UniProtKB/TrEMBL annotation:
Record-given protein name: DNA ligase
Whole sequence portion shown: 1 to 327 of 666
Reported function: DNA ligase that catalyzes the formation of phosphodiester linkages between 5'-phosphoryl and 3'-hydroxyl groups in double-stranded DNA using NAD as a coenzyme and as the energy source for the reaction. It is essential for DNA replication and repair of damaged DNA.
Domain of life of the organism encoding this protein: Bacteria
Catalytic residues in the record: 116
Lineage, highest ranks first: Bacteria, Bacillati, Mycoplasmatota, Mollicutes, Entomoplasmatales
Gene assigned in the entry: ligA
Length: 327
């Protein structure tokens, strides 16, 4: 392929992907499924890898996906809210681990294994024991201040037993049962139904009317912990600390001390994923030791010490979704 041909393809892919990202992140109304989006973005990454001088800082491959809506007050994140690199096979996990090993000097790395809940990121800022702000990821640097909506989520405490300035991050989601209930009600009211729990959760949290948010039982699992006064040394200690402060953490989280344990976790949840009460689209592996995390470092878009292992796409449209238009 010539550079001119690549440049045209790259341009076309960027236009398409930017349009889809807007539908997904701003309008909460995607027109294509995630597998198709992932295929296109990986085509773009491959082309950019072949022709690195065609990479521009504004390429969608260089940025965290979200766009900040004008509907909400803007909030500048103290620590960037990044995305995650993704992989689709065991061989790719081994490659990821080899990259980590270049820094840690061993391939026997300890990882936390966390289910990748299909919802949307939230950052909770507590000061003097009180929830001050709840903010979406937005473009990773600036998010939307959705504090009033976050305060309606029953599993997010308004007060915690610590006076430190603490930022806790995780995923807001809708359980499958709640999602079905909302769509049944929408059908009865003659409204368009939501395509999936992720869109329903994102559409709900970014609602202007907090009363509507309160009626839809959003839930949240938390997994990142920032406390400069009393920092934790490992990811698993962070999760335990979040739990101690009274927030919900996912009970399926485990420590994997060996590659065999990583593989077993992947196999187990690939099999079990449909039995969970909420949707997941993969598993996130994070290097457990936080000092090592910092040594391994970051790209502009993702931490290099974590990876999302994505499940193969499932064809699982319900009859309702086949028949009725979706939001
Ligand atoms: P991502 O959703 O693949 O991964 C990053 C996110 O994972 C984090 O922001 C966090 O919210 C979430 N997450 C869940 N559990 C986590 C855990 N335990 N630890 C850490 N993070 C956890 O990346 P992205 O950049 O937000 O979005 C890309 C995804 O969005 C792709 O899957 C893509 O298919 C989809 N997308 C789809 C469309 C479409 O039109 N269908 C458009 C844009 C993006």
């Amino acid at each position: 392929m010539t550079k001119e041909q690549a440049s045209k393809l790259i341009n076309d892919l960027r236009i398409k992907l930017n349009e889809w990202a807007k539908e997904y992140y701003v309008l909460d109304n995607p027109s294509i499924d995630d597998a198709e989006y992932d295929k296109a973005i990986h085509e773009l990454i491959d082309l950019e890898n072949q022709f690195p001088d065609l990479i521009t800082p504004d390429s969608i491959t260089q940025k965290v996906g979200g766009i900040v809506s004008d509907k909400f007050e803007k909030y500048t994140h103290k620590y960037p809210m990044l995305s995650l690199g993704d992989i689709f096979s065991w061989d790719e996990f081994l490659n990821f681990n080899k990259q980590v090993a270049k820094v840690t000097d061993t391939e026997d790395n300890e990882y936390t294994a966390e289910l990748k809940i299909d919802g949307l990121s939230i950052s909770l800022i507590y000061k003097d024991g009180i929830l001050q702000n709840g903010v979406t990821r937005g473009d990773g640097k600036i998010g939307e201040n959705v504090t009033n909506n976050v305060k309606t989520i029953k599993s997010i405490p308004l007060c915690i037993p610590s006076k430190d300035e603490i930022e806790i991050r995780g995923e807001v989601f809708l359980a499958k049962k709640e999602f079905a209930k909302i769509n049944e009600e929408r059908l009865l009211n003659g409204e368009q139904i939501f395509a999936n729990p992720r869109n329903a959760a994102a559409g709900t949290l970014r609602q202007l009317d907090s009363k509507i948010v309160a009626e839809r039982n959003l839930d949240a699992y938390l997994y990142y912990y920032f406390n400069e006064t009393n920092p934790e040394e490992t990811q698993i200690e962070s999760i335990n600390q979040i739990k101690k402060l009274g927030l919900k953490t996912n009970p399926e989280t485990k420590i994997c001390k060996t590659l065999d344990e990583v593989k077993a976790y992947i196999e187990y949840y690939t099999e079990k994923r449909n039995e969970l009460d909420y949707e997941i689209d993969g598993i996130v592996f994070k290097l457990n030791d936080k000092n090592l995390q910092e040594e391994v470092g970051y790209t502009t878009k993702t931490p290099k010490w974590a990876i999302a292992y994505k499940f193969p796409a499932e064809v699982k449209q319900t009859k309702l979704l086949d028949i009725f238009p979706t939001v």
